[in-house]
Amino acid sequence: MIGLPTYVEQTRFNAWDLPCAVLPHSYVDMVAAAGGIPVLLPPAGAARPELVRRLDGLVLTGGADIDPARYGGPSAGIPGYTRPDRDESEFGLFELARAAGLPIFAVCRGLQLANVALGGTLIPHLPDVVGHEEHSGVEGGFTTTRVLTIAGSRVARLAGPEVKVHCHHHQAVDRLAGVLTATAYAADGTIEAVESVDGSFLVGVQWHPEADAADRRLIRALVEAADTYRRERNS
Hints:
Elements: E1 2-5, E2 7-13, E3 16-22, H1 25-33, E4 38-41, H2 49-52, E5 57-60, H3 84-100, E6 104-107, H4 109-117, E7 122-123, H5 127-130, E8 143-149, H6 154-159, E9 162-167, E10 172-173, E11 180-186, E12 191-196, E13 202-205, H7 217-234
Parallel strand pairs: 1-4, 1-5, 5-6, 6-13
Antiparallel strand pairs: 2-3, 7-10, 8-9, 8-11, 11-12, 12-13
């Protein structure tokens, strides 16, 4: 049972145009293709422990920027948008999942959330630092980025020494949380993957693996870790 946080957006379908809890179906496909059971989690206030007890793993999904107040960032003048309801729900969900030892796979915004929740900070607008917008993709689409992994890391073992990935982000890790280590970089030095230093299954990638149906190695590893977690919890 793999939890997938959704987000509330104005959504139009058939004759309807109203706020809905939504998530790109590619996340559902990714989890299902790896053998997991996707469970959609709408933002509904503070996360509750009984929810985490029903899950075996968690994917922190992509989406809006993290509220800069959570890491001391600038409050104005930065492109992008925030979703305070998601922050409230998902920061709590992450804390409960970590406390329970739940395997966690963090995607794009999810990596940034994990880093901030664990004490790190973010670059508010990456083009201001690297001097280009190659990570940002196009509106409604992705760009292809070449990523080099760190030998000996979990990400390297799963994905290999070099990966071509789908990116769409204008923010990135600045100060890395002390309990995380960087395990992949873009050519311009941007941190593209992290993992926990304590050996628990906490892997975050700045790219969008749900957009690559041909490569399911990372999500399969999460589902395998979730299956082990479930068996040990129920034994």
